[in-house]
Amino acid sequence: MSNETARKEETNAITKPAKSPVVTGNKYNRQAVIAIAVAVLFVFAIAAGGFSLWREIKNTNAALENQVGDLRQKENTADAEIQRLKNKDVDLLQQIQDLQTRNEAMNIALKQIHRQPGTDNIEFALAEVEYLLIMASHRLTLQKDVTTALAAMEAADRRLEGLDAPRITEVRGQLVSDINRLRSVNTVDITGLALYLADLIQRVEQIPVKNNIHSMPEADSVTGPAADTDGWRHVASLIWQELKSLIVISRDQEISPVRLLPDETYFLYHNLRIELANARLAVFNRDTDNLQASLDNIIDWLNRYFDTREAAVSNILNSLQQMRSLQIDPELPDISSSLETVRAYIRSEDEDMTSAPVEDRADM
Question: Tell me: the pLDDT tens digits for 299-311?
Fold first, then answer.
């Protein structure tokens, strides 16, 4: 019984409609519509974003393709430039090789020219160098002319510089050593000193003397009673006049040992001119001792007889004192080593020529 009752209740539950309000069903429908709409919007947003992303990727790919194209074009241009440079490099190498070949040919031709007789060969150049060194030695030894000797030695060095000969460097080494020793000599401007002394000689009479030179007073006339022109009185008068003319009495506040008569100034200027000429001659002879002796006399005379307060006299004194301190004959080096080295080289070249076989001498 109980089983049948249970079955009936189940059947009735199935057949009877559910008792739910209508309002509840409408609420569920709206939520579904909203969900669907949201889903649709989400799908559209995803689609729009995907489309936008697709377009951006497409544009980026296009830009990358353009850049790749530009890079490929630049790479092609660079390859072409590299190839052009390689070709140019090859041309330059070929030109360098041609120049080297020409240089070697020119060197061979120059050597052949040096070996030909009657041309500017090594023997002639060495003879010219020997002459220059002889001239330098003579100028330095006999005339103490450092400037000319140095110029001749420098000319000899330039002449050796252009020679292409074995062992010529040793000769130039000795020559350069002597040139450096000669350059270390303190030279004096001999020409300038001589010109200055010559100018003093020309204007020596313009140098002012001191103001204590006394003039000869005129003979006093005979005073007292009239002299008798006859007899011994006239003779005594003449003797008295002569005695008075020989004695000069002067009074000066500045007592000085220097007393010059007007006629003596001529001899003073004349002696000063002669002493200046002696000093000038000593300058030309590079004679320091005689120059200093002459300058000592001139300086002493200027201090004793001339007005040292004048600017002209003081300037002359300063110049002469500076000149006196100069050493116009300095110790000169021995430059004969260069000449001996050149002559030894010439002798060795002659010996090599003599000992060489006939065939080699014919080639030379």
Answer: 999 998 888 888 8
Question: Distance between CA 330 and CA 182 in Å, rounded?
Answer: 11
DSSP 152-197: HHHHHHHHHHT---TTHHHHHHHHHHHHHHHHTS----HHHHHHHH
**Residue listed under structure tokens 């600017």:** 311
Helix (H) or strand (E) holding 337: helix 336-355
Considering only CA atoms, give the Rg of the chain. Answer: 61
Asked whether 155 and 172 are in contact (CB, 8 A), the reply is no
Average pLDDT over residues 41-60: 85
Supply 282's token pair: 């000593």
Q: Which two tokens stand for residue 181?
A: 């020793």
Which residue type is seen at 168?
Answer: I
DSSP state of 310: S
Q: Give dist(CA 286, CA 332) in Å, integer.
A: 12
Which amino acid type is present at position 304?
R
Give yes or no for a contact between 170 and 274, defined as CB atoms under 8 angstroms apart: no
Look at residues 311, 220, 212, 209 and name the one whose alpha carbon lies nearest to residue 269. 209
Residues 6+ apart with CB under 8 A from 312: 206, 207, 208
Whole-number Å distance between alpha carbons of 135 and 149: 7
Give me 263's structure tokens. 């006629």
User: Could you tell me which of 166, 117, 359, 114 has the C-alpha nearest to residue 106?
Assistant: 114
Q: Cα–chain-centroid distance for residue 170?
A: 28
Pick from 33-37, 93-97, 227-231, 278-282 the range whose average pLDDT is largest.
Answer: 278-282
Q: What is the value of pTM for the model shown?
A: 0.44
Confirm if 144 and 333 have CB atoms less than 8 A apart. no
Q: Which residues of 247-257 are buried (b: 16+ CB within 10 A; e: fewer)?
A: eeeeeeeeeee
For residue range 8-36, list pLDDT tens digits in order.
555 554 454 444 444 455 666 788 888 88
Tokens of 209: 């003397």
Which position has the token pair 């000869």?
A: 216
Q: Which string of b and e fits 101-113 if b means at least 16 CB within 10 Å?
A: eeeeeeeeeeeee
Give dist(CA 39, CA 30) in Å, integer.
14
